[in-house]
Amino acid sequence: MPIDGAPLKSGSRGPGHAASAGGVDAARLWRLGWVAAVVLAAGAAAFTPGTVGLHVWLALMAGAVPAIAALAVGDRDDERLQSLILVLWATCGAGAAVVTGGVSGAMSAWCLAPVAAASTLSSPRRLAEGATLALIGGALAALTQLSGLAPAAPTGPLAFILGLLSVATTGVGLAAGLILVHRRAGERDQRQSGELNTLQTLVDGAPQLLLVIGANGRVRTARGAPPRGIESGLLQREGLVAVAVAGDRQRVGEAMAAALRDGEASVTFAPLLDPTRTVCLELRQVAPDLQVGVMRDATLERARETALQQARAEAEGLAAGRARFLANMSHELRTPLNAIMGFSDIMRARMFGPLSDRYGEYAELIHESGGHLLDLINDVLDMSKIEAERFELQRGEFDAREAVTAAMRLLRVQADAAGVQLRAVLPPGELEVDADRRALKQIVLNLASNALKFTPRGGQVTVTVDGHDGQFELVVADTGVGISPEDLERLGRPYEQAGGVDQRAKGTGLGLSLVRAFAKLHGGEMNIESRLGAGTSVSVRMPVLLRVVQPMEAPLLEPMPESEPELGPNVVKFAPPR
């Protein structure tokens, strides 16, 4: 981040990058200067009087090798490669010093070549590494000279040329390194100062008041915007407790003690200068005698919380009123509906005399419509009770197969009218469960009725019942049109429907939501799997299974017509009566 706090644009160069580029340029120039100085010294040596020995040419070549290698490698951020280059500087520098007379010879200054090279690198660790290598190289040159293995040192003009070369190149490298170190230190200080200024600006502009608190409760530092009713001068003069109203001062002191004991604490209080407002103080212990705190105005938060609580209470009141209205409306509608269905049933049975075919058909339609309306009212009433958390299960032990079979018989007429084959796959033995019989029957009715509604003529709806490991499982699968992914996400919520307009007009959208609610009340769950054009499978699992009783002999099943294929020993087909 730049000093002014603005992010760097793509492709821009910050101060750190500029410093790095400046250091790389200076190091490259010094290496080029080293090679140039070696070339000039070699030219001067060639024109000096007398014969220049082979060891002098070897020393000059050895001095040029590490500089050329460093130029070829560049300043890569590879620590191993940089270490190898420093070792090369130390080896060649010490070798040049050895073949020109050792530590007292003309080129002894080149023993410090690794120090000069390391000082031009950006890593401070390389300077220590270069100093160590220089010490080792100087020690080897001294031992070689003391042992008499070193050649005689050059004399005369040649010694002057070689001495000037070694001192000048090494001295310039050390000087360049010192300049670079000083520049980096200045830029680092400038960068840190800029970051400190940015941080100070952020702290001073914070919407909360940031505090540093001593062990005695005195505020050492206060930065940021104080809440309304808090005066910074009073806070720093008298401490935290003094800025609260008299009734809240003990609570503030207890919060400070709690932070000292537990590491953190928070408290709300009314400020002394504006008791109508609320201030929140959060404290954290960072040292045995030091705490940091954040103080902010919580008046708006308190008002917002109060408004939310009031809105929640109003919503709960509306929900309760709606539940009461639905319960009353359902009761009022049931009474005339029962009369309508009773009288239409009498007319259907022709108990008081014959009726024409037209009137008999009307009586059937009246009874059917009344039954449909009564089912819708029962669904709405059940859902309102469940939403109000007033629905109570009437649990009991029974054979789940009986409830499933009873529900399937009620759907035979609907299956016959839709032209859909309805069948059940039941276990051969008793399936004892501890559940609400009416709720289980309603689950089967809702799922199978939905499957019949969305299965075209000639299709099939299969209801499978099974139980294992304490779980009762009911699966209703159809070969219908399927459900789109968009509708699948909505299904299971109250009053949500899928399909076309004609299909949606056949219900209220409460069927699947009631199934899910009944399963949840039993501690279970409902899952839906479907693909467009491939049918739908709805499974309900509830932990209500008590035991599965294996029969002593094959179960007695409803006989199948001889013309139809055998479906298996545990398959019961529910066909319309003949």
What does this structure look like?
The structure is a single chain. The chain is an alpha+beta fold and 578 residues long. The protein folds into 4 domains: 15-200, no CATH class; 209-297, PAS domain (Beta-Lactamase, 2-Layer Sandwich); 306-387, Helix Hairpins (Orthogonal Bundle), CATH 1.10.287; 395-574, 2-Layer Sandwich (Heat Shock Protein 90). The chain contains 16 helices and 14 strands. It has helices at residues 15-46, 54-73, 79-99, 113-119, 124-146, 157-204, 232-238, 249-262, 299-349, 357-387, 400-410, 412-418, 437-453, 485-490, 501-504, 511-521; strands spanning 209-214, 219-224, 264-269, 279-287, 290-297, 395-399, 421-425, 430-436, 460-468, 471-478, 525-531, 535-542, 545-549, 571-574. A hairpin with a 2-residue loop joins strand 4 (279-287) and strand 5. The longest helix has 51 residues, at 299-349.
Rg over alpha carbons: 47 Å
Number of strands: 14
Please give the domain count.
4
What is the terminal-to-terminal distance?
87 Å
Q: What is the general shape? A: elongated
Q: Quick check: average pLDDT?
A: 77
Give the number of helices: 16
Taking strands numbered 1, 2, ... along the chain, how are they ordered across the largest sheet?
11-12-10-9-7-14
Approximate strand percentage:
15-25%
Low-confidence stretches: 1-21, 553-578
The major pleated sheet works out as:
6 strands, mixed
Residues in helix, %: 40-55%
Helix-strand makeup class: alpha+beta
